[in-house]
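Exercise 7b. C-alpha cells:
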C-alpha cells in the first residue's frame, strides 16, 4: 500500500496518492492495468503535491492493456518532479472521451514529460482534451500531449 499520512489508503499529507507506476521502472511500483469507465463523472479539485516525486497524476502509470474512458478532471492541482500529468503521468494503454479543465500542472524546471492530460504517451489517446488552467515545467514537453490548447496557459520557467 502506498505511503500516506496514516500509513494506508489513497490520501496523505501530499494529497491523493497516484494509482500505479511506470511499468518500465518496477522500483516505483506496478502500473495500473485494469479498466476504468468513469461513466462521465467528474473528479473536482484533485490535489496532488509531490514535487520531489516522479510519475505523478491520478494514475502514476497506465500499463499495457489498460483502458481509461469517460472521465473528467476539473479544477485542482498536480505537482511532481518529472513525468507529470493530471490524468496519467505515463500512458501505455488507451485513454478515450476524457478531459482536464482548469487545472494547474507543474514539474521541475529541468525535468521532462510534463503535460495536461498525460506527461508522456506511448499508448492511444482519442477524443480527449485539455482546456484552461496552466502548465509549468520543462520546455517543449509542457503541452506535448494536450489534444487542444484552447485557453491553456503554458509557462516554461
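Sequence design result:
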Amino acid at each position: 500500500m502506498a505511503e500516506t499520512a496514516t500509513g494506508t489508503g489513497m490520501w496523505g499529507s501530499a494529497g491523493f496518492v497516484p494509482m500505479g507506476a511506470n511499468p518500465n521502472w518496477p522500483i516505483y511500483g506496478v502500473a495500473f492495468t485494469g479498466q476504468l469507465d468513469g461513466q462521465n463523472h467528474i473528479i473536482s479539485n484533485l490535489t496532488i503535491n509531490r514535487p520531489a516525486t516522479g510519475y505523478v497524476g491520478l494514475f502514476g502509470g497506465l500499463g499495457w492493456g489498460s483502458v481509461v474512458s469517460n472521465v473528467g478532471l476539473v479544477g485542482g492541482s498536480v505537482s511532481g518532479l518529472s513525468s507529470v500529468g493530471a490524468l496519467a503521468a505515463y500512458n501505455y494503454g488507451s485513454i478515450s472521451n476524457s478531459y482536464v479543465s482548469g487545472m494547474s500542472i507543474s514539474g521541475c524546471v529541468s525535468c521532462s514529460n510534463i503535460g495536461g492530460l498525460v506527461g508522456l504517451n506511448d499508448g492511444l489517446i482519442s477524443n480527449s482534451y485539455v482546456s484552461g488552467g496552466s502548465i509549468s515545467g520543462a520546455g517543449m514537453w509542457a503541452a506535448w500531449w494536450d489534444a487542444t490548447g484552447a485557453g491553456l496557459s503554458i509557462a516554461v520557467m
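Instructor comment: The chain is about 0% helix and 45% strand. The chain has one domain: 11-156.
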